[in-house]
Every structure is written in C-alpha cells, then in structure tokens.
Amino acid sequence: VVIRPAPRLARWWLQWQLPADVREDVVSNLDELHLVRARRRGQLAADLWFVRQALVFPLRVRLAGDAREPDARHQGERVMSSVIQDLRFAVRLHRAHPGVTLAALVSLTIGIGLNAAIFSVVDGVLLRPTAVANIDEVMMVWETDRSTGTTREPASVPDFVDFRRDTRAFAALGGLIAGEANFAPNGDDPRRVARLVVSHELLPMLGVTPLVGRGFTAADEQSGASLVLISERLRQSAFGAGTDVVGRSIQLDDRTSEIVGVVADNADFGILQVLGAAAYGRAFADRGTGVRVDVWQPLQPTASAPRDSHPLLMIGRLGPGVSSSQGQDEMTRLAAELETRYPEANTARGVFVEPLASVVFGPSRPALLALFGAVGLVLLVACVNVTNLLLARGTARSREISVRIALGAGTARVVRQLLTESIALAAVAAALGAGLAFGAVQWFATQGPATVPRLADASVDLRVLLAMTALAVLVGIAFGLFPAWHALRTTPRAGLMAAADRTATGGRSGRRLRSTLVVAELALAVVLLVGAGLLIKSFWRLSQVDPGFDATHVVKAQYQLPTSRYPVNFATWPDFPEVHDFTRRLEARASALPGVQAAAIASSHPLDPGFTSSFSIVGRPPDAERLPEISVRRVTPGYFDVVGLTLREGRTFDGGDAILATPVAVVNEAAATRFFPDRPAVGQAIFMWGAERRIVGVVANERFFGLTAAAPIAVYYPAAQVPGADGAGVLLVRCDGREAASVGAELRRAIRDIDPGLAVFGIEALDETLSQSVADRRFTMALLGAFALIALALAAVGVHSVLSYTVSEQTREIGIQIALGARPGNVRRRIVGSALVLAGAGVVVGTTGALGLTGLMRALLFGVTPTDVSVFAAVAALLMMIAALASYVPARRATRIAPTDALRD
Amino acid sequence: VAREALGEFEHQVLLAILQLGGRAHSAPIVTEIEARTGRDASPAAVYIALRRLEQRGLVTSMKAEPEPLEGGRGRRTFVITPAATDKLRESRRAFEAFWKGLDPVFGSGPAGKGRKR
C-alpha cells in the first residue's frame, strides 16, 4: 500500500502558524507520526489525525509558550479548553434547535453569499485595475455636431490624420474603425468575424501586447501590406491551440492577409461600450449578444478618404501633466482650424473629450452599485432576522444564562460563549455562502448582459473570500452581542423567576426589542421593494413604448458583401450591378420560401442605429438653416410590409422606383412634422448625394436607437437607387410564426445558394432582438426584484416568529379570555392587528428611507420618478398583506388554545 | 530549578526517552508513550512537556544536522540529564516505599491490571 504524505493544506497551515524556530522540528515529527498512523490505522484516519494536530498544535504551543509563569500557562489552557467547550456547547445547542439554526443559517448564507457574489462582480468589473496603464490619462475623442447637438460622433479619416499630426496635448492619438468580415477557415463554411481596423497607436495605448508575434507599426500604415492580428480564440478555433501562426495567412473577404501576431481574447476591452456610446457607426449591431473582436488590421489612410464620411473613433492618451480640459481646449482649436479650411464638410464640427473609463464603465456603474447597495440591505435584513431568531430561542436560553450567572459565571465568560455560538454560525454560513457566491458569479459571467465590460472575467478571489470571512465575523459579533447584552441586563433572579414561570414576566422588554427588530426588517424590505417596484414599473413603461414596427413573426439574417466580388465603383453609382443582382435574387428567393409571407432587404434592421447624413431641402436657401443630420435607411419595397411600418401619407416604394428612375424618398413622421410643419411633406423634395429626391410618402417613427431614446428623424430610400459602399445587408422576412431557428436555417441556405462565400450571422427573431435591446435593464430588474423578495420573505419570517412568541407568551392570558367568553374572531383580529401595527411602522420608516435613497437610482428609471406614488402605495399594501398573512398561523394557534390547557400549565 | 515533583505525564515522557536509549526525537517519544499506555498521546502535549522539562534542566536538546533522508530536516534531539535520572530514581524510591507490603493485596509487580502470575 502506498502511503500518501500528510494533507498538503493542513501541512501548509501548520507551517504558517508555527514560529520559525520550531517549524521544521514539529512538522517533520508530525510527518513521521502521520506515517506511523497511516500504516497502522489507514490513510484516512491518519490524515484526519494530522488535520486535527495542525489545528490544535500551534494553538497549544502558542498558549504554552506565551506563558512564562506556570499559572498564566494554566490560564491559557483554560481559555483554550473553555473555547472548545463553548464550541461543543454551541454545536449541541444548534443541534437541539434545528429549525431555528436552519432558518438562521439560510438567512446568513443568502446574505453573505449574495454580498460576496455581487462584490466580486463589482470588483471584477469596476474596481480591478485594467490592462490599460493609467487609464485616467486615456480619453475618448469624439467629434460633435453643433447643428444636431450630438456630442459623440465618430470622426472622418482625414480629420483623424490631421488631429494626430497636429496635437501636442495628446502623447498619442489612435483611431479605430469597426466592421465585419467574412472568414472561411480551411474551406469550412464562412463565418462572420468582428474586425477592428486600428492605427498603430491604439493597441499599445490600450495595454495590449501581442502574446506572440508583433503589433502594428507606423510603417504598416504606409506599406499597404495586408496584415492581421488575430485573437487567441480565433487561433484556437481555426488553427488549434498553440499552433505557430505568425507568418501564415488567412482569407478575410477574399483578401489574403498575413498574420503578424496573436493577442489575448480580452484585447477588445472597452470597444463594445465605446461603439455602444457612439451616436452612429455602431458596428456589430448584435453587440448585445456578446460579440468579441477576433481580427485587427492596420488602418491605412488614403488621400482619397472622404472628409464627410465619419467611420472612425478616436482614442488618445494625454501627455504627461496635461489635463483633460487642456486636451479639450487644444482639440477645439484644431477643430476650428479644420472648420475654416474645409467648410464643406466640417461646418459646425467640434470635438468632445471625455475619459475612456467613463464611457466604458459609466453605463454599468449605476446598476451595479444599486445591486451592491441592495445586497447590503439584504444582509442587514438577514442579520436582523438572525438576531431575532436567536432571541426567539425562548425562555430556555435566558434560564440557562441566569443559572450560569447565578452559579458564578463572569460576564465576560457568558458573553464569550454567546459570541462563540454566533461566530460559529456565521463561519458555517460564510463557508456555505462562498459556495453560493461561486455559483452566482459563474451564472453572472455567462448569463449577465453582454453590455457590461469584462463581466466574463469576474471571479470570486482570495480577497473577496477574506473580506467575506471578516464580514462573517463582524456579522457574528453583531448578532451575538445583542442577545448577550440583552441576557445580561436581566438580573439572574428575574431570569430564574421567568424561567420558573412560563408566563414570562421578563418578556415585555424582550418583546419590545424584538418588535423593534421586526420593524427594522420590514423597513429594509420596504426600501428594497420600492427600488424593485420602480424598476418593474420602468420596465413596464418600456414595454408600452411603441417601437414603430411590429416585430412579431419577423426573422432577420445579416450578411456582409465583400468588395472583391461586389465592386463599389463610384463612377457608375448608383448602378452597382453585382450588388443589385444579389439583392434582387435574394429577395425573390426568400419570398418564395414556404411559410414566408413577405421578404425585404435593408441596410440595417429596425433596431440598428445605422448611420446619418446631412441633406438640404429643395426650394430653401441652403444657408438659411443648418439642417441636422438625418438617419438614412436603404430598403427594398417590401420592407414596410415586413416590419409592419404604418403608412401615414402617400405611398411606399414599388418596383417602379428602379435604379435610374426618378429618385424618390419616404420620410418618417418626426422628419415630416419638423421640416414641413405647415404643409404636406409628400410632393416636397430633399437634396442628398447629388440628386433631388422627391418625397412620396410619410411613415410612422421607428426607434432605431432603442426604446428609451426618442425616435430620430429618418429618410428611407429605395435600395436600388442608393446602394451602400459598406456591403452590409440584412434580410428580413415575415413568416407564419414558425420557430425562428428553422426559418433562420432556410434564410441561411437561401443566402448561401446565391453566394456560398458569405457568412450569415445575426439570425434572430426580431422579437428577440427587441427584447435583447433591453436585456440589461431586465437583468437589473430581475435581480433587484429577487433581492427584494428575499428581504420580504425574511421579514415575513420575522413577523411570524415575533407573533408566535407573543402568542406563546400570552397563552394563559388568552386562555382566560376565551374561558371568559372572548370570541375567537376578536382574539385573532387582535393578533393580526398587532402584525399590522408592526407593518405600519415598517412602512413609515421604510418609506422615509426609500425617499432618501431612490434618487440615487434615477439613472436606472424610465418614465417613472423616484418618488412614484403608485409604487410606494403598492409596496405599502403588499407589505401589509404579507404581514397579515405571516401573522395568520400564530393567530389561528391562539384561538385554538383550550382554556383548560392554558390554565393547567 | 524548581523542587517540584514530577507530574504523571512528565514522568511518562522521561521514562519513554530512557526506553529509547536516553536520547530521542519527539515523534518516537509519542509513539513510545502510546505503545506503553495503550492510548493516544497528543504530540502537542509531549512537545510542551519536553519544553518544560528542558526549562527545569531535566532534558537538554540539540538541533541535529539535517538528516540525509527525504523530509528528514533539522529535527531536535532530546537527551536525558543526570538531574532527571536522579529525580526518577528518587520518585521510584518514594513510590516503592509506599508499595512495600501491599503485594498480598495487588499481587506482585507494579499496578498490573489484574495481571496473573
């Protein structure tokens, strides 16, 4: 039989605990004894023995060693043995009252576990240092448009080149353009990869160093060579982990690119949040489902890049000692110079500088902090509840303590015993809570909203576990001291008398104390319920918002046409024969699919912000009024039917609106009422992209920017008349309500049949897209709701236990009343009434607290004020109801008291 | 040095060292006590007793060079002092004085648990 060495953890603990001068000696002797024992009694017995020695040995040695005087040494041993005695007693006690112990344990486990979980998430997302060195020096540099009032726009490539050359305030200014690419590894089915085209400054600025190979250099921007950095994830899926890929090449959109390096999977830190904050040009429209960037390519600015197209996001690092406002000032000055030099494209363009960290973390911060606050309250409720339960352990306990004191136990001794009990309970709860926290964080990382940065990296770490242990000890002290203090306040005599007499004369102050605790629990529950209620109402309000389209039974599938096979030649624009041919064939094919009622192709789906463009109104002097930019949607004629967009005036498009026919446009109501308030919009014309485009219809407003944003002004053009240069396309079909997945598979096949080299992505029911767009709100609501329900349940347990206590305390009194002819109904009403008094007090205190706190969650609310009366009223009513329900069992028990029993006792 | 009498456990520890040849590491002492009493002995108790005995000058100890074995690193060896053998002899004499004449009651031999001749 092979004997394994002593358990490593115990050994490690032992070494850590022992003073250095005896460490080696003790450990090697214990090792030898372990070996002897293992031979004689088996491995398990020996291991257990060793663990016990590891725990006991250092304690005993320390106690013996500290004591020079033999007496003091005995004192030490006495303390130790009495602690063990207390622990034994605590275990016995908890075993004797399994119900109370279980309830306390569950309360504490939930309280501690949830705190550890949420703290781990807050820590992982908000607190831990990022890979970006000195992230407070890194700034997002947006362009602004004074005519529309938008502050977070991407820049044009020439603007970026100029800013980068002229800035002194920024030590480095980088740019990025996000987009999709088709990628077909080794002849497999093509798939979509998210791509960032970046200037050479960007990756070093964001703290990204390639795992293997090299990053991009300034020379790469000039060389024109097609280079690519890939993510570790892509390397694993396309080549196999650990493969040496540097120097090999991959096909992206028919173009061969040479791999120069591999970067970590989280190299796209913050990019999704930056894209989400941009006013337009938000690539990866399915960001909400957790898109990760897999390929990076060098930005290679050409002289011909247009100054009026804005695809590029700028991120800069301020020079040493330069403040963000100095950076802002310099950029404003540079923007003003560009404005004078290029009035055509840059009129009204400014710059807005803000910290990258606030763009990345800002949107998640309020929700996370609200949840953190909420679990803190849940823990408080749990502690109060446990205190209450321990107090409720009844007369047995106070009798025991009185006896102890009467027999000469010192105050310190009694307090220590009570603390040992409560800390033991808290320690077990902390251990269970750690399990809960691990599970919960796992769940967060996989199920949480993808909009939260680095959520997947959140984990329960040693720091959190230590903090949690400290928390458990504090909690243990908190709820252990309270009963101790309470027990010590009663004189032994009163306690003994109370113990002898079951009608507990000493119970009145106890009841008052416990009532106060219950009110505190109820008040905390009110605060949480109000918070949850406000979020629920916000969400309900959100669900009432008319998105402008009808998403039911609509399925979408996205693709990206590579310019290699679908050339973009502006000399012949709008006649891009390959693009138009593809669109026509796909639409025809999709319409013919069984179960498909209508099909359409658009540049972006209804929840994709798409892009905006400047325009002018025909017949008005161009300078009389700087017009804001308008959202541009390119659609095939079927679009309006497919997404159920209501026609308000005129007509939508038809087959006659062909490539070279008279240019036409449809505007939405927001645009019509804004620009043509006093006359019909139909019949007017707008000028854009070199042509006058006649308005033939007005449709309802679609909310491209999500349900919480106001509907933007928009213009729809026939896809045939204004093909895009970016190749992005979405196929939308309205079908007969079959599973989105099966329809999606057919859509994929339809696209592949026409062009087998295209990756099809974002296959999803539009319903799902809509629901996904509010996923983070739903997540916060669900969690806060769950926390509030937990608090409510704990508070209900509190009400129930304090009333049960009251009833058992008043058994004789109630028995006499019933014997004297009191009606059971009256007795019951009195008990339910006292529950309502408690609840009423809880509502008053809780409402006051909630009024002070809900203002902090303003950022999370939609269509609801933090002091919404209906929410507060509903919470009050709910709490009253739950309190009444919780008092029902004790009330019924009270009326079942047989007078004879009550009097006999 | 205190003129305190030996406690029962200290007695056992000292005798165990003598059984092991007058010098021993602490682990064999524990094993020896367990073998002779038939009960588990606590290594911590043995360790503390050895330390006390050392303070009283009844054992001395030295830290050995690391043994050339796996895991056999600087262990402390405890050695009985002449003072201890005196003390043991003295206490044995004292006990035997008390035992004298009790053989008919208990049978001969020290406190055998009903051991037959």
Would you mind describing this structure in some detail?
The complex is a heterodimer of chains A (905) and B (117). Chain A is an alpha+beta fold and 905 residues long. Chain A is built from 30 helices and 23 strands. In chain A, the strands form three sheets. In chain A, strands 1, 2, 3, 4, 5, 6, 7, 8, 9, 10 and 11 form an eleven-stranded mixed sheet that branches. In chain A, strands 14, 15, 16, 17, 18, 19, 20 and 21 form an eight-stranded mixed sheet that branches. Chain A has a four-stranded antiparallel sheet with strand order 13-22-12-23. In chain A, helix 15 crosses helix 18. Chain A is globular. The two termini of chain A are 65 Å apart. The longest helix of chain B has 18 residues, at 82-99. Chain B has helices at residues 8-19, 26-37, 43-55, 82-99, 103-106, and strands at 23-24, 59-63, 76-80. Chain B is mostly helical. Chain B has a three-stranded antiparallel sheet. Chain B has five helices and three strands, in the order H-E-H-H-E-E-H-H.
In short:
Chain A has 905 residues and is an alpha+beta fold.
List keywords for this structure.
heterodimer; A: 905 residues; alpha+beta; eleven-stranded mixed β-sheet; B: 117 residues; mainly alpha; three-stranded antiparallel β-sheet; 3 strands; 10% strand
